[in-house]
Write a structure and sequence with these properties.
heterodimer; A: alpha/beta; 5-stranded mixed sheet; 5-stranded parallel sheet; 15% strand; B: alpha/beta; 17% strand
């Protein structure tokens, strides 16, 4: 639709109106003029008749045709008359005559006008009649002549007045409207601008419209302001909410941090308690009653450790620090190990405990065995706790895969723990997995527990992309099951688990930095039991001082220590320099001892230059393994190590202030029963390793000799000396020893023959195998 | 000048009226006789018939005999009286009438005879003649062979 201007529309209407009016006026004017012309013609006819009357009368009276014709033709001499007829009646005197003629100019007759002619000298005597017809053409002509100016005038007047009206309307209506509408386009509700009209245009409906619109604008403006204020308030509220949120998050973070710190702080003394209780149980001198007490204390301490661990887990989960491993593991072995304690616990309550692994469950799967174990232990522990008679059954099965999207290699593994316990009411099931909730409050009283176990389990299962569900009815037992989709794994060597804890072949000089007394004692006990030489310091600074003074083979470094913590100390070690002191061996192996082994901590420790971790409380087996690895690494590097000298039992007993008796700890028994044959094979293995490494060593020595790098040469000679000593090649030990001294004292050039004979010895040794 | 002309005009008009008054002295006490030749055998004509004959409408007597009217001197009191008494119109109307007819060139007014003796003589000798005279003794006229067919009086 084309935009049509109101102004044009008004003009159009006005002009149409003018057309109609002028047509109407013209018709009326024409009619009137026609009537007037007719009247005029009659009047003229009558006056003509009056003019010829006497002549006509005379003609009739005298019966004179010539005069009669004069009268008739005189009438026809004007074009008002179309035809004229003079008739005289015949009477006794006259014979009568009839004179008739029409206008030679032509035209058309109108109704006849008749005039009776009486005798001139006697009015009572009618002698004849004069008949005339007015000329229509004259009337028409006359009408036209008078009408055209009238009509033109009327048209002119009407059109001018219409145009004037249109202009007036334009000025009064369309112009203000156009103004208003233009302004309306640009005006915004929130602008202070208002529609304005001159006062003389305001005193009509447009004025009312403008006023109304302005009022509307005012209202809208007010509404806008209110809205803006509300929005601002909302934004402020949002900001304060944001602030509150970040505060709350901060608080939550602080809570998590606090929990983590507290758990750690609690765990550290707790590991002391556990360690000490463990040692106490090994003490043969205690009475059975005391042993019972200690056992009770131990189990309570263990329960406490579990709760602490739970809390630590929760805080880890909440902090988003929970990490799930993806490793290959042996399902049956892992489960057997995890559930090994339960048959005994079950039999204590006279329960039947059964573990069923379906034959179609693959031997190896990929997943996080630690977490699966944690969940299963939690479920089984609950099952045993809440079952008074009957059985607890753990079953592992493979569910048929319904979803095609899973790859061929993937299995849905269902872990189910079924019991015949007290069961759960339908209402309590949804609450089960909430933190600090148990089926009901009385449960806590009756059975104890933190109420965190199931919440942690659920979070762990969800973190492994699994689902958990519970089927239960009051008094009819429960089934807890979780389903994980896991792919089939590869066989693992699992050497660490299988390996038997064999005594160490060499004695290490170990530095341990640990601030807590009990832990110092535990580490000292364990390490000295293994036959190693240990120096314990209380913080990082002291450790650095020791490392500058003495040669060590291994450093065990606690994470958190006063003065200087493990990370800082390790950085200094790797730098090789601390204050004005030089670290003698900056490549020394550093093992972190830490309670908090989060992924973040690991990264931090590794970045600081630590080689490995051991979590506290210290697992003796793992520590043993670490030291074993260190020994073989050092030997491989050609480090000289003293073969292990056994620590006597009495010495150990003294250390622990245990009354000297014949009984000795199991570990030392094992060390003493070290088979010689095994030692031989080790020696042979080392021999082969040494020979294999010789070509490379010779090249290194040559290079260092060429470059006159005495320090490097010294290190290399030292390595050869160590290896030769282990291999019991005394000649090589001597030569290497002499050369080492020469290199260290910068006297290499004084014995060129010694060097060449040494190289000869090395080369000949290569062929000894 | 204008004043002078006006005075002159009024004076001349006065003079003219005195002359006409003297000449057209009304004959109130008299009557006018319409006469014909006795041999015309007419004894009586009515006023209408007289009008037709003297005003050119007819040239025949009612008995069908041809006739000829004779008039008196134009401007004389007799003529004025005659036509005025006959037609009851002013003499100017009569003159206008004649003027119209004469204009056509076909009709002519009656022949004018200036004195009474000539009139009487004409009527005596012409059987078709008709004329009017001041009242005379009808007996005397009859002796002369003249018949009075109508007598007009002032109304």
């Amino acid at each position: 639709m084309q935009f049509k201007r109101l102004q044009h529309y008004v003009l159009l209407i006005m002009m149409a109106n003018a057309l109609v009016l002028s047509t109407l006026f013209s018709i009326i004017a024409y009619q009137i003029n026609q009537r007037l012309a007719e009247e005029e013609s009659k009047r003229q006819v009558h006056s003509l008749l009056a003019a010829v009357r006497k002549t006509a009368s005379a003609a009739i009276f005298s019966e004179n045709e010539v005069v009669g014709w004069d009268a008739v033709n005189g009438l026809l001499g004007t074009d008002v008359i179309y035809s004229a007829e003079l008739e005289s009646f015949s009477d006794g005197v006259s014979s009568g005559m009839k004179l008739s003629n029409i206008n030679k100019e032509g035209g058309a007759p109108l109704p006849e006008i008749k005039m009776e002619l009486e005798s001139i000298f006697d009015e009572s005597q009618i002698l004849g009649v004069l008949r005339v017809t007015p000329n229509a053409q004259w009337v028409k002509q006359r009408t036209n002549d008078t009408s055209i100016p009238t009509i033109l005038g009327v048209i002119l007047v009407v059109f001018i007045s219409s145009f004037a009206s249109a202009q007036a309307l334009k000025v009064k209506i369309s112009h203000p409207l156009v103004k208003v509408s233009r302004k309306l386009k640009h005006i915004k509700a929130d602008s202070p601008e208002r529609l304005k009209l001159p006062d003389h245009l305001k005193l009509n409906e447009i004025g009312v419209l403008v006023d109304g619109f302005n009022e509307l604008l005012d209202e809208t403006n007010t509404a806008f302001n209110i809205e803006r204020r509300l929005r601002r308030q909302m934004q402020e509220a949002q900001i304060s909410l944001q602030f509150a949120k970040s505060e709350a998050e901060g608080a939550a973070q602080s809570k998590s941090d606090f929990l983590a710190t507290m758990s750690h702080e609690i765990r550290t003394p707790l590991s002391g308690i556990l360690g000490m209780l463990g040692f106490a149980l090994k003490d043969q001198s205690i009475t059975p009653r005391t042993k019972e007490y200690i056992e009770t204390a131990l189990s309570n301490a263990e329960a406490l450790l579990i709760i602490i661990n739970d809390i630590l887990d929760i805080s880890k989960i909440e902090a988003g620090k929970l990490t799930i491993e993806e490793v290959d593991f042996n399902v049956r072995k892992e489960l057997n190990a995890a559930l090994a304690i339960f048959p005994e616990l079950a039999s204590n309550k006279s329960l039947y405990f059964d573990l069923v692994v379906e034959p179609n469950v693959p031997e190896f799967l990929v997943g996080d065995p630690t977490r699966i174990r944690q969940v299963l232990v939690n479920f089984v522990g609950n099952a045993i706790k809440f079952t008074h008679d009957g059985c607890v059954q753990v079953s592992i099965s493979i569910l048929p895969i319904k979803n095609d999207s899973l790859s061929e290699n993937t299995n849905l593994v269902c872990f189910a723990v079924k019991d015949t316990g007290i069961g759960l009411s339908p209402e309590s099931i949804p609450k089960l997995f909430q933190k600090f909730e148990q089926a009901d409050v009385s449960t806590t009283r009756k059975f104890g527990g933190s109420g965190l176990g199931l919440a942690i389990s659920k979070q762990l299962i969800e973190a492994m992309n699994g689902t958990v569900n519970v089927k239960s009815a009051l008094g009819e037992g429960s089934t807890f099951q979780f389903v994980l989709s896991m792919s089939i794994g590869k066989a693992t060597a699992n050497a660490q688990i299988d390996i038997e804890q064999t005594p160490h072949t060499h004695k290490l000089h170990i530095l341990c930095a640990e601030d807590f007394d009990t832990n110092q004692l535990i580490i000292r006990t364990i390490l000295e039991n293994m036959g190693h030489d240990i120096v314990i310091v209380e913080n990082g600074k002291l450790a650095l001082e020791q490392l500058a003074e003495d040669d060590f083979d291994l450093v065990l470094m606690d994470g958190r220590m006063p003065e200087m913590d493990g990370v800082e100390a390790t950085k200094m070690i790797r730098k090789g320099q601390w204050k004005d002191q030089t670290i003698r061996n900056k490549d020394i192996k550093v093992i972190a001892l830490t309670a908090n082994v989060t992924e973040e901590d690991r990264t931090r420790y590794l970045a600081a230059g630590m080689n490995d971790f051991l979590s506290k409380p210290i697992d003796e087996t793992l520590l043993h393994q670490v030291i074993e690895d260190t020994i073989s690494e050092l030997l491989e590097q050609g480090q000289f190590l003293n073969p292990l000298i056994r620590i006597s039992t009495s010495e150990l007993d003294n250390l622990f202030a245990v009354p000297s008796e014949e009984t000795i700890p199991d570990t030392s028994t094992e060390i003493q029963s070290m088979p010689h044959q095994e030692n031989d094979t080790l020696e042979k293995k080392l021999h082969i390793t040494f020979i294999n490494s010789l070509p490379e060593r010779i090249i290194e020595i040559n290079e260092a000799f060429e470059a006159q790098n005495l320090e490097e040469l010294g290190r290399l000679f030292h390595g050869i000396k160590g290896s030769a000593a282990y291999l019991k090649n005394q000649a090589l030990v001597d030569t290497a020893g002499q050369l080492e001294v020469l290199a260290d004292t910068n006297n290499m050039d004084k014995a060129p023959s010694l060097y060449s004979s040494f190289m000869q010895q090395l080369k000949s040794y290569q062929t000894t195998l | 000048m204008m004043k002078y002309i006006r005075i002159l005009l009024i004076f001349s008009l006065l003079l003219l009226s005195m002359v006409s008054w003297a000449d057209n002295k009304p004959l109130d006490s008299e009557s006018i006789q319409i006469i014909v030749n006795a041999q015309s055998e007419l004894t009586q004509l009515n006023r209408k018939q007289i009008m037709s004959l003297f005003l050119g409408r007819s040239t025949r007597f009612p008995n069908g005999k041809s006739t000829k009217a004779f008039d008196n001197k134009i401007g004389s009191a007799l003529r004025d009286n005659f036509f005025e008494w006959l037609t009851r119109k002013s003499i100017s109307d009569i003159d206008a009438y004649w003027a119209r007819l004469r204009y056509s060139g076909r009709v002519y007014p009656p022949k004018v005879i200036d004195n009474l003796d000539d009139i009487l003589e004409t009527v005596r000798q012409n059987q078709s003649a008709i004329a009017y005279i001041r009242q005379q003794d009808p007996e005397q006229l009859a002796e002369q062979g003249i018949t009075v067919v109508h007598t007009l009086r002032k109304r």
